[in-house]
Each structure stands twice: as structure tokens, then as C-alpha cells.
Write a structure and sequence with these properties.
flat, two-stranded antiparallel ribbon, 51% helix
């Protein structure tokens, strides 16, 4: 195997003849084969590690989903527990609701984006929400003008603007948790 030059070393001399060419090509083939073997060994180890942790992670995901659902259900049933900012700081985490960014969606599963583009092309107000040359819905333009658009007209074109509220649980960092726990103990005393 020909040693690789260090980045600070000058480049190897140019290949002078067919014999030197064959030697360098042979070395390249060996390097490629060695690399493929190392990548294969790496993938086997990664697969084994993933397999080892798959079941415990799946079990943990089930508990996270179950218990997060309990907290979300409580939060929805107790809206007065949340101050104006729609979140509640607990000892170990902040829980609450976030408004997701608005998005353009189909009004019904019956509508395809192609159908919507064709319908928009037929509506006087809808043409400005198409990209050319192929008719394509310009969702960004619709979102930018959403305050000016009428819901009934959007439905006529097979569109709706959706903005959902999503529940979240954001853990506090270790310093925040320790500080919150100490404050909770002081308040209880």
C-alpha cells in the first residue's frame, strides 16, 4: 500500500509510465475494498447496538405517550391553571400549549392539489395563488394573504388555512430543576 501524503507534505510526483499507473490504481482498489470492509463492520456494530436498545426505547416511548396524554388531558380540563401565556411552570418542566404556524391544507381528502390548482385557475381571485408554468398552488402566497382571504372562498377552491394548538412539555435544565425544587420547598415551609 502506498502511504498517503500528509496535507503539509508536497504531492507525490506525477505518474511517468503505465507500470506506475497500474501500481497506483491497484492501491486505490485495495483502499476502496478496505474502506468497504470497515464500513460493513461499522454498520454491523451500529445495527447490533440499535437492536439492543430497540425494545427498551419502545417501552419508554409507550410510557412517555401514556403519561404525556394524562398531563395533556389534565391541562385541557383545567384551563384556569394556566396564566395568560398559556404555560405553567412546574418543578421539573414547563407545560402548556403553543400555537403552531398556520399552514395551507386541503379542505377535504377528496381534493387533490392538482384539483385545487385547477379550481384556483378558474377563480378570478385564485389565479394570483398559482405558480407557472405548471399549475401549482403557491401556499406561501396564500399564507401571506390569509387575513384578506374569505373562508368560504377558500373552501370553494378546496383549501383551508389551519393553525393548530399543540401541547408541550419542556423539561428544565439541571440548574433550573434544582432551583425550582428549592423554591418549592421554601414555599411549602
Amino acid at each position: 500500500m502506498i502511504p498517503l501524503p500528509h496535507p503539509s507534505q508536497p504531492a507525490a510526483p506525477t505518474i511517468q509510465n503505465r507500470q506506475e499507473l497500474e501500481a497506483v490504481v491497484e492501491n486505490i482498489v485495495h483502499l476502496q475494498q478496505d474502506r468497504a470492509e470497515i464500513e460493513s463492520a461499522q454498520e454491523k456494530e451500529i445495527t447490533a447496538i440499535r437492536q439492543k436498545y430497540r425494545a427498551p426505547l419502545a417501552e419508554m416511548d409507550r410510557y412517555l405517550l401514556l403519561e404525556s396524554t394524562w398531563v395533556e388531558t389534565w391541562a385541557k380540563a383545567n384551563p384556569t391553571a394556566f396564566p395568560d401565556k398559556r404555560s405553567l411552570t412546574c418543578t421539573h418542566a414547563t407545560i402548556g400549549f403553543r400555537i403552531a404556524p398556520p399552514r395551507v391544507d386541503r379542505a377535504s381528502r377528496k381534493w387533490t392539489w392538482t384539483d385545487i390548482a385547477l379550481k384556483l385557475s378558474e377563480l378570478a381571485w385564485g389565479r394570483r395563488y398559482l405558480r407557472q408554468p405548471a399549475l401549482e398552488v403557491n401556499k406561501e402566497a396564500l399564507l401571506a394573504d390569509r387575513s384578506e382571504l374569505v373562508a368560504a372562498e377558500l373552501r370553494q377552491a378546496g383549501i383551508k388555512i389551519v393553525q393548530e394548538e399543540r401541547f408541550f412539555i419542556t423539561p428544565h435544565g439541571p440548574a433550573e430543576t434544582a432551583e425550582s425544587t428549592e423554591n418549592a420547598w421554601q414555599e411549602a415551609a
